[in-house]
Structure formats: C-alpha cells, structure tokens
Amino acid sequence: MQRRQYLAAGTAAVGATLAGCTGGGGDGDGSTGTLATRVTDQPGDIDDFESCVVTVTGIRVRPSDDEETDTETDGPDPDGDDEDEGEASYDVDDAEADLVQLQDGETELVAEQELETGEYDYLKLAVSDVDATLANGDDAEVDTPGDAPLTFDESFEVRADARTVFTADFTPVKRGQSGSYVLQPVADGVEVTHEE
Q1: Fewest CB within 10 A of the end CB: N or C in the chain?
Q2: Can you name the residues that pair with 89 across neighbouring β-strands?
C-alpha cells in the first residue's frame, strides 16, 4: 500500500516517546501535572474509508502567560515549520491512530507529557503522514490544512499531580470533486477532563 507523505518529515526518530523542554510558562512554582493527548473522529466523510491511519509526530502547547517560555525543542522541529512565538513543542515517537476505528466515542492515546501547572491557550498536533485506503480499495490522498499542524483552540488547565486528558477531535473531509481529503479539527468535539 502506498503511503501518502504530505509533510517533509525529515526527522530522525527520537529515543523517548516524548522529548522536549518547556520553560517558565505555567504557574512558576515548579509544580507539574500530566497532559494526556487522545484523538477521536466525529463523522465527516470517514464512511468513504476502509482505513485512515494518521501518524502524530509532535504536540505543541502555549502557556497563557508565555512571556518567558522557552520554545526550544529536543531534536528537529517535528513538523518542519516554524513555531509560533511562546509555544513549547514536544516530539512524539510516531504514534499511529486509525480514524476509522475511532467512532462512537472511541479514543486513542497518542502522547503523554509532564508539563508545568497552569493555563494553556491551545494544543496543536503535528501529523507527518496519513496512510489511507478508500472503501473501494483505492489509495486516498489526505492532507492537513496548509500542510500545517492541526490546531485545537481550546484552553485547558494542567493541575498539580493530576492528569489532564485533552481529546482532540478531527475528521477527513472531501475537497469538492478533486477526490482528495483534508483533515479538519471538529471544535465542538474537543473535550478536556481531569483525573486526580
């Protein structure tokens, strides 16, 4: 099966599942919590697919108070483009999720990272590859908007010694008559919960 490469990955595998560093965002008292990022798929044009496997290579977050945030990453930028000012990015060791299997509330864990406590403005997912097959057996071309990370404009709080679960919802949507698809975030499907 032909793999569809739509972002210049060009990154070496990072040894740890997640690596990177974030600086002085958060509350500044040194306390930390866990951010668990899960993905799910609300029906868009997913019924067109036999499988739609996305490869997540990084997450990005921006602390609400980002004046002193260190945005340096460990290794190459996971999605090959520049970060927005104040973002902290973390590499993910090629986590794969088949969106066809993530219907009806099913989710898949793609990243887990310790972060400083505090408020964060948004979360982005860097997707390096989509390997998709249509229901008729043909390969499908699936991109992200502008070949950029998927952005989920949902603020969230990381709490001390707790697990914040951020469920990012996105789905493939057909581009007119072109036969190609684009992954689109589903804003009202994003969910943030806390586990003590």
Answers
A1: C
A2: 60
Question: Is residue 112 within 8 Å of 20, Cβ to Cβ?
Answer: no
Domain boundaries, the chain: 4-189
Reported pTM: 0.78
For residues 124 and 150, the answer to whether their CB atoms sit within 8 Å is yes
CB 35 within 8 A of CB 61: yes
Tokens linked to 187: 């804003």
> Does residue 72 sit in helix, strand or coil?
coil
**How buried is residue 60: exposed, middle or buried, by Cβ count under 10 Å (0-12/13-18/19+)?**
buried
Tokens of residue 35, six digits: 């951010």
Q: Which of 78-82, 133-137, 152-156, 191-195 has the lowest mean pLDDT?
A: 78-82
Which of 11-45 are b and which e, b meaning 16 or more Cβ less than 10 Å from the residue's Cβ?
beebeeebbbebeebbbeeeebbbbbbbbbbbebb
User: Is pLDDT of 118 > 90?
Assistant: yes
Rounded-to-integer distance, Cα 113 and Cα 90, Å: 8
Which of the 8 DSSP states describes residue 44? S
**Which pLDDT value is given to residue 28?**
58
